[in-house]
TrEMBL record:
<dbReference type="InterPro" id="IPR011711">
    <property type="entry name" value="GntR_C"/>
</dbReference>
<dbReference type="InterPro" id="IPR036390">
    <property type="entry name" value="WH_DNA-bd_sf"/>
</dbReference>
<keyword id="KW-0805">Transcription regulation</keyword>
<keyword id="KW-0804">Transcription</keyword>
<dbReference type="Pfam" id="PF00392">
    <property type="entry name" value="GntR"/>
</dbReference>
<dbReference type="Pfam" id="PF07729">
    <property type="entry name" value="FCD"/>
</dbReference>
<protein>
    <submittedName>
        <fullName>GntR family transcriptional regulator</fullName>
    </submittedName>
</protein>
<dbReference type="InterPro" id="IPR008920">
    <property type="entry name" value="TF_FadR/GntR_C"/>
</dbReference>
<dbReference type="InterPro" id="IPR036388">
    <property type="entry name" value="WH-like_DNA-bd_sf"/>
</dbReference>
<keyword id="KW-0238">DNA-binding</keyword>
<dbReference type="InterPro" id="IPR000524">
    <property type="entry name" value="Tscrpt_reg_HTH_GntR"/>
</dbReference>
<feature type="domain" description="HTH gntR-type">
    <location>
        <begin position="12"/>
        <end position="79"/>
    </location>
</feature>
């Protein structure tokens, strides 16, 4: 994970790459919620000085992925039930509008793209790769979010996606992924049928099911 050698093109590039790698590590639960993020450990891990580490931690605090407290340092942020409620409320508002637009779109293209992500997830799961399966389902959401076509909303979506990916890694089991696949197939069927109401209903049911599972998995 070192940033030495040819990757050290400029100080700005180093700062950005440290931020991006640490962000992905937090999302992928390399650092569990509540785990301390010690500068000395991170400088050794990423092969950089303390300055880009400190700047990355501040940016990640703004993203809501890191908590920084005086005299205690930084740690990976944790979620409360209220946090999850806000995250899933925002997701439901955005994705329901997206899925309605997807279902109302002419032609089969969006339905085919959504189905391709679920097909890919099924193949990964059959091969025993849950992480790849979850990543394919993340792509399902990305296809939906493309329907926004609104730069301001897309900024909100990008921040929301970080938390959704991170929370989704907590309860990653064959059972949870299989259940999610079935729910995604129901959503796709409504999109392919050009049924906005049915697509929204299926999506709401899926999101609320996922929220309940995450609350249970996090023990909150």
């Amino acid at each position: 994970m070192s940033l030495s050698g040819d990757e050290r093109v400029s100080p700005l590039q180093v700062k950005d790459r440290v931020y991006e790698r640490l962000r992905e590590a937090l999302i992928d639960q390399v650092f569990a919620p509540g785990e301390p993020l010690r500068e000395a450990t991170l400088t050794e891990l990423y092969g950089v000085s303390k300055t880009p580490i400190r700047e990355a931690l501040v940016r990640l605090q703004q993203d809501g992925l890191v908590e920084i407290a005086a005299y205690r340092g930084a740690r990976a942020s944790s979620y409360t039930e209220a946090d999850l409620a806000e995250i899933f409320e925002a997701r439901e508002i955005l994705e329901c509008e997206c899925v309605r637009r997807a279902a109302a779109a002419p032609g089969p293209e969006i339905g085919e793209r959504l189905a391709a992500t679920v097909d890919s997830a099924e193949r990964a799961i059959a091969a025993g790769d849950l992480a790849a399966g979850a990543a394919s389902l993340d792509e399902f959401d990305e296809v939906l979010f493309e329907q926004l076509k609104n730069a301001l909303l897309d900024e909100i979506r990008q921040r929301l996606s970080m938390h959704l990916r991170r929370v989704g890694r907590v309860n990653l089991t064959p059972e949870s992924v299989a259940r999610s696949l079935a729910e995604h197939r129901t959503i796709i069927a409504a999109v392919v049928a050009h049924d906005p109401d049915g697509a929204e209903e299926a999506l709401r049911a899926h999101l609320r099911s996922v929220q309940r599972q995450q609350i249970e998995a996090l023990g909150i």
